[in-house]
């Protein structure tokens, strides 16, 4: 392989890795936005449920269920953000 071909291959690989980072950032943006919308919808539903429910025991159980779902969404969002950060960090290390 000639030096020019090797350089071209390295340049293309570098651009590919940069494109992966950009695509992951875009995907993470849309995922975070979607998770935020889900969170807002759950909170809105929780507020409407509180207004409609008269029985304190039922209200408490519904709130616990929605809180658990909301916590699961937040945990998934945190795990995904951590994974994206690790991948981006590894790509940066590999580019050096």
Report on this model:
This protein is mainly alpha-helical and 96 residues long. The protein has one domain. The chain contains 2 helices and no strands. The chain has helices at residues 3-52, 56-95. The radius of gyration is 22 Å and the shape is rod-shaped. The mean pLDDT is 82.
Would you kindly provide a brief summary of this structure?
Keywords: Membrane, Transmembrane, Transmembrane helix. The chain crosses the membrane at residues 12-32. The protein is mainly α and 96 residues long.
Keywords:
94% helix, mainly alpha, 96 residues
- The chain-level mean pLDDT equals 82
Pattern of helices and strands: HH
Model regions low in confidence, pLDDT < 50 over at least 5 residues:
none
Helix/sheet category: mainly alpha
CA-atom Rg in angstroms: 22 Å
Keywords: Membrane, Transmembrane, Transmembrane helix
SSE order and pairing:
Layout: H1 3-52, H2 56-95
